Amino acid sequence: MGFLPFAVAVWLFVIGLWGVVSSRNLVRTVLCLTVVQSSTYLVLLGVGYRTGAMAPIVADIPSTSKLVDPIVQVLVLTDVVIEATITALLLALVVQAHKRFGSIDPEDLRPLRD
Amino acid sequence: MSHLSALPVLVPFLAGPLLVAVGFFAPRWFDDSLATLAALAVTTLCVLLAVHAAPHPYAYWMGGWRPQHGVAIGISLSIDVTGAGLAAFAGVLVTAALVYSLRYFDAIEGLFHGLMLLFMAGMVGFALTGDLFNLVVFFEVMSAAAFALTAYRIEERAPIQGALNFAITNSIAGYAMFIAVGLLYARTGALNMAQIGAALSSHHADPLVIVAMTLLFLGFLTKAAAVPLHFWLADAHAVAPVPVCVLFSGVMVELGVYAVARLYWVVFAGPLAPHAAAVRAIFVGLGVVTALLGAAMCFLQRHIKRLLAFSTISHVGMLLCGVALLSGQGLSGVAVYVVGHGLTKAALFMCAGVLLHRFATIDEYELHGRGREVPVVGGLMAVGALLLAGIPPFTTFMGKSLLEAASSALPGYGWLIAVYIVVSAMTGGAVLRVAGRVFLGWGPAEGPHPEQARAAQERVDEERGPRGHTPVLMVLVPALLLVGVLVLGLIPGAVPGTERYVHQFVAHGNYPAWVLHGARVALPHVAPSHISAEDYAYGAISAVGAVLAAGLGLFGRPLRESLPARLRRSGQNAVGVVRGLHNGHIGDYIAWWSAGVSLIGGICLIALH
Amino acid sequence: MTRRVRLGLFLVAGAGLAVVLLLGFGGLPSFGHAHELDGAVVNLDEPTLRHATDVVTALNFDLRAFDTLGEEFILFASVTGVALLLRTLRQEEEEDQEITPGIEDHRFAGASDGVKLTSLLLIPLLIAFGAYLVFHGQLTPGGGFQGGVVLAAGPIAVLLAGRYLSMKRIAPKRLLEVSDALGAAAYGLIGLGGLIFTGVYLEDPLPLGVSGQLLSAGMMPLNSIAVGLEVTGAFLLTWTQFFDQTLVGPPSGS
Fold it and tell me: Number of folded domains in chain B?
């Protein structure tokens, strides 16, 4: 059990990449990227979790309570913001790809080149 | 003086939003002058920081969170001459790119200027920070601005596709780094690089540390475009607007190499000390493959910006070799070469921009002989080509000589000199070939793959096609950059000085001392490397090789046709296969990325454990 | 590469990657047993909390405020990028002129009265809850970012009520751009207050107040408001840019 969350993180990372590699639709590609990123949340939150510890809100709890590590939660907050914003940027690119190429299949997105 | 440490990041962070907020009514001159002034201010501040850090590097603790009893919990800017110097170099190139774009194209409502400043803030923060997570954050700041700038010309197809490949590949690289941060935090409870390094140094490297190292290095090497993580680069650099290409090739890619060097010497040099030889072999191998593949692909292009992009990949391979030698001398060579190469490549992209501006195409054969209208640019391009080839005794040559000296100083690595010479001759030769064909009309006017000529058409503005004139400024800026390459390496004391600061950079034990304990670490005394007659000979061989390669590209058709048919066919097949790999399909690129990471990760796990 | 070769390559590469990652993760402490490490523990002493009761916000806006600064500008750069990428080209502008009259007939215009009423009722609730989250950042879970997203959802309810153009009138693009830029710059400027009054960037010059009160924890409430302003502007700007693609103008791909 102690390794399960990290094994799931590995699964998410690899299966998300599989989605990106096998995708025939760029919207799906972008969503698969968020799957890859979910694995980073799991790793970061997983390494800060302590069994039986409280959430790091110190109002109304005894000052001696054990808390989960708040630092990793701060890192995940930043990670989440990055995901939301980069996803928006990627989707804007997909919209433009659809306008220019008339398709969002990566197979069709090939300007003439070597 | 140290009070100003945060300002190089803050100034563009304040000027950028201002430009975006008032962009819709502010006149163009306002955008130009505010952005250029901000870039100049950042450059000046970075130079001041470098000067301030020259006697003793220092850490600036954000919010006053100084380390207590040697334990750092806050975020520091850890400022030494190498980092601040690189930040200043980024500032110089941003300033040059902004001045160049004054007359280059119609910028849209302050968005272009705003994003350029945010991009600069990302690069400067990346070069100065002392915190691992913060490094990744600034990597992402850089990325977010760079993705959008790549797709600036949304009315065309190639920029959209290039930006998508760039964004997807680099985002995945970012995720790998987040995982590595999590691993190292779980092991050490620290995020400050000095603190992580100190915590790891007493232990032997186990799989966790090795995997964290692989993910971080390969993440940053994705930005630096090491083979096989490099596919996105040519797609993106070939299609971004020229002022943006200047920054991509001139400094962003090199920042990836910088991060690898910083992380190795600060964090991983301790636990991996017993395995230094294996680390060296693995990453020199990666560098050599990158250098040679990049050089070959460079020579095969007819799209001039794409040619320059592959030349960047090739030179990154050389830089990676220099870092991977794991010696102060090798890294000194890298530092000098980064400056020489960055300025040269920036100038070459600007010359390509003149062609685009005037003729609305960037195809070598389409432009056959048409460059005679602008002979000055032809001269600049030829000079740039020779500098790229490392002609003595200028800055690129100095850097290359240091790399050569460092290679021959290590038993078993002397053969790297041949790689450097081949790379310099082929990339310099390719550019020289372009200059000969475009500006002198040498060689045939029709080339292989004529269907590619259409891909090289590019208009500077949405509405305007080719123009009959070239603004003086667009010639002046690259000329000044090239003068910089000619002069900088020859300034007495510049190269030996760099060597001393780089030796300070590679002293693994020093870094925690000045970051965590505020120790005043003195500059080490290093005997300056002498440039020997051999180095001049190597330099001359590279330059002559470049001329020969250019000649072969221009007039070599009869020679190629005299080869036996079987040899010719198998040669063409090999070329076809390598070209076919760079096919623009994001699925392929990510499959190669995964293959590269698993292969190198596997090798590291076996060889370093 | 053909699709078959690509997938085959990834099957091998992905398996290798999984093995590499699993070996690396093998060195992690068992889940739920994070080490009691220096870095993790010292954060919880009294001065570190700066009289805030939400430790995550306290770290976000103080100890790791420089990360948050970078994060705000990732957001800002992306939104600026979206505005750049989804801008209307001059040729498209002309086409738009012909199509726009049909704008009132967009997909949500035919919403049932029930949906419209619910949406309108939601608006004050969303704004009140969003403002609550922004102002209580240092006290309870939430803060500028979360509150900003909720606030941005307020005008979206106007869209759901079938009035896209009204939504754009309530939150015009220029105003959103200014709010986004102002919030981002304000976060940087608040840190500058530290540089001016204490001599260190991002250091908190304000009194920390009484823990648990609305105005406590020094500059954190100000930070929270700056972030809230930026995020509200940023999300609305992004959403309207995307809505403009489908609700206004010719069908894409034509």
Answer: 1
Provide the token pair at B57.
Answer: 């590097």
**B50 near B85, Cβ under 8 Å?**
yes
Beta bridge partners of B129: B77
DSSP string over B396-456: HHHHHHHHHHHHHHSTT-TTHHHHHHHHHHHHHHHHHHHHIIIII--S-S--S-GGGGGGG
Residue B378 lies in a domain: yes
Domain-wise residue ranges, chain A: 4-108
Domain ranges of chain C: 49-90+99-247
Q: Is A80 left (phi over 0), alpha (psi -120 to 50) or beta?
A: alpha
Interface of C with A in 220-249 (CB under 8 A): 234, 238, 241-242, 245
HSE-CB for B567 with a 13 A CA cutoff = 6
pTM to 2 decimal places: 0.94
Within 8 A of C29 by CB-CB distance, chain A residues are: 47
To the nearest whole Å, the CA of A59 is away from the closest chain C CA by 5
For B184, the domain range is 2-519+540-607
Q: A interface mutation test: which of B135, B140, B179 has the most A CBs within 10 A?
A: B179
Report the C-alpha gap between B278 and B163 in whole angstroms. 36
- Chain A residue with CA closest to B449: the answer is A114
Q: What percent of chain C has pLDDT over 90?
A: 28
Q: Is A112 exposed, middle or buried (0-12, 13-18, 19+ CB in 10 A)?
A: middle
Backbone angles phi, psi at B563, to 5 degrees: -70, 155
The partner residue sitting opposite B160, judged by closest CB among A71, A96, A112, is A96
Which token pair is C180? 């986004």
Q: In Å, how far are A29, A92, A95, A106, C124 from A99, measured between CA atoms?
A: 18, 11, 6, 14, 38
Nearest-angstrom CA–CA distance, B450 and A112: 11
Q: Which residues of C, range 145-184, sit inside 8 Å of A by Cβ?
A: 145
- Single-letter code of the amino acid located at C153: A
Min Cα–Cα distance to chain B from C115, Å: 35
**Domain covering A4-108 in this structure, CATH number:** 1.10.287.3510
| pLDDT 10s digits, B414-465 | 999 999 999 999 999 999 999 999 999 998 888 887 777 777 777 766 556 7
At C2, is the secondary structure helix, strand, or coil? coil
- Test A74 with C59 for CB contact under 8 angstroms: yes
Which C residues 92-131 touch B at CB under 8 Å? none
- Assess if residue B349 is contained within a domain: yes
- pLDDT of B31 > 70? The answer is yes
Q: Are A28 and A105 in contact (CB under 8 A)?
A: no
Residue carrying structure tokens 């005394």: B525
